[in-house]
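Q: I'm writing up a methods section and want to include an example of the input and output format. Could you take the sequence below and give the corresponding predicted structure tokens, formatted cleanly so I can copy it straight into the document?
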Amino acid sequence: MSPDHPAHVAAFIGEVLGGPTTYSKEHGGHREMVMHHLGKHLSEEQRRRWINLLVDAADEVGLPNDPEFRSAFMAYVEWGSRLAKMNSNLSETCDPETEPMPAWGWGVPGGPYRPSAK
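A: Here is the clean output for your methods example:
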């Protein structure tokens, strides 16, 4: 893992949650994130540890602690980490046209995943 990995993860999560498109502009978007995980074979234990670290970081930086926000945040963390685990078990590239940057909908009816607007 590179020393820049935490900053890259923060940029990715920030973009998915509706923040600036820093990850896409500077690091290649969702396709590149998937490419970094291919063949890593993440375990369920690693996935759960990552979730715990994210929750600890959310507490440390003072993200809202109200139930609605944390419920939506944790739903994304569960969803995203399960996708990362699935992607880590792939050995081939993905098509950037079919792998747009996810955009979390914060509980908007119709599902949380939608391609980001271009």
